Amino acid sequence: MLSNLFQIKYPIIQAGMVWASGWRLASAVSNAGGLGLLGAGSMYPDVLREHIRKCKAATDKPFGVNIPLLYPGIEALIEIIKEEKVPIVFTSAGNPATWTPVLKAAGIKVVHVVSSSKFAKKAEDAGCDAVVAEGFEAGGHNGREETTTMVLIPAVVKAVSIPVIAAGGIATGRQMLAALALGASGVQVGTRFVASEEASSHPAFKHAVLQSKEGDTMLSMKQLVPVRLLKNDFFLQVQAAEQKGASPEILKTILGRARAKKGMFEGDMQEGELEIGQVSALVDTIQPAAAIVTELWNEYQDAKLALCDQ
After folding, report:
1. Structural domain boundaries, residue 297
2. How do residues 257-298 score in pLDDT, each as one tens digit?
3. Where residue 148 sits, what CATH number does that domain have?
4. Strands of the sheet with 88-92, listed across from one edge
5. How many domains does the chain fold into?
6. Which of 32, 35, 39, 113 pairs with 196 at a CA distance of 20 to 30 A?
7. pTM, whole model, 2 decimals?
């Protein structure tokens, strides 16, 4: 179903992650048969245009752009996407009814990221072609409901008739098989692609992902926008403030500006914001993106065959 919708070989989507998903990663995933996404959440308009054009030059396969709808000056990003004729847009963190009709009118396929079946239904009503159902395990910004992927996927599949893409805690072929068994049409993978050769994230951040263990990430800043972070000095500052009942204004002061860039792109492992999923505990190698896509698909096929033999 997703293969036809996006014209891709495998139902594997690379998440559009801030400071990790530039044109090198997106084009590599698309060339390997998945769907690569540019993470526009960390890009000024002129930077996004540059990455779109470089991605077009690096692949003749479909690719897309992920846009957080709360992005300031989103109008400029939308215009660039339309002008550059990007075929697919994934939206998140906002009301899909605002921009989905505009994008659809331009012939663009639209997918919205949701954390509940209620929001999935709203995305379907807004005209989205599919939804990403992202569970509590996911890295980056997360749903306030804290619903896990195992519960969320079947709930969303039951609620909507459009394709559902599973996200949150997926880094292996076995996990992909579990997601499809729950009714998903494909998977969106973020954390695993952070630890890829083509990801634009800092090498120190990639190494931190490899070193992480179970329990090393936690949902934080629930008073603002919930985000799953790797524990470091910055995380401990936020945690201490939250335990004292800090107001959103105080948390905004602690967060400051460009905190995610400082950590994930510039490599400050103590004072930077390090957004990553729980599944980082299962990631122990940095590989080319194409090898990750192939490994995911082969593991999925092997696991499916193994189940059939039982």
Report:
1. 2-200+282-309
2. 888 999 999 999 999 999 999 999 999 999 999 999 999 999
3. 3.20.20.70
4. 12-14, 186-189, 164-167, 130-134, 109-114, 88-92, 63-68, 36-39
5. 2
6. 113
7. 0.95
